[in-house]
Amino acid sequence: MRLVVGITGGSGAVYALGLLQALGELGVRREVVVSRAGELVLAHECGTDLAELAGYADVLHDNADIAASVASGSHKTDGMVIVPCSMKTLAAVAHGYSESLLTRAADVTIKERRRLVVVPRETPLSPLHLENMLKLSRLGAVVLPPSPAFYQRPESLADVVKFVVGKILDQLGLEHALCRRWEGAEP
Ligand SMILES: Cc1cc2nc3c(=O)[nH]c(=O)nc-3n(C[C@H](O)[C@H](O)[C@H](O)COP(=O)(O)O)c2cc1C
Predict the structure, then answer these.
(1) In angstroms, rounded to a whole number, what is the distance separating the alpha carbons of residues 82 and 32?
(2) Ligand 1 centroid to 37 CA: how many Å?
(3) What does the pLDDT look like over 35-59, one tens digit per residue?
(4) N or C terminus of the chain: which is more exposed, having fewer CB within 10 Å?
């Protein structure tokens, strides 16, 4: 399996690192694109720079390189995840405004009818944010807010991250044991 992973300047860069690590362990080829704001948030929240991020990727593309492989539908992938997805990138993708490699790769994913999972992060949400999410959902994208489930009884932030990463992997049809599955209430 080959996936494009876009990282933007929404809060929650740790979800991107968790997903990239899990995909690597599953043998999925990861082509990663990070926006400038994504880079800043990654450094601020995780202390991770681009050199370290490269260790989580099979290919780390330059977001300004609009001629990179993932800018074309002829380059085969199985889909794209944008995690975290800022409201700016959400708006760009919802309107086909492909001013960067990351947004172009998302546009390609939609036009080729491939799987697109966006993990939007903002609170509260304005009508604009909600409309953009609805637009993408109607186009077939999966809108997956990183909302923790307390029925999992998380004991740490690591548990919360694992749960969200597990939900993303579920949408990609990838098997994992990152969270417990609900099998009914315990007696
Ligand atoms: C520390 C930090 C946290 C941010 N968190 C969010 C967020 O959760 N959601 C959001 O939409 N924007 C957030 N922003 C603002 C975006 O990074 C900003 O709108 C940026 O232009 C997004 O660009 P991009 O979509 O190209 O990454 C944050 C910025 C910083 C510096």
Answers:
(1) 10
(2) 6
(3) 999 999 999 999 999 999 999 999 9
(4) C
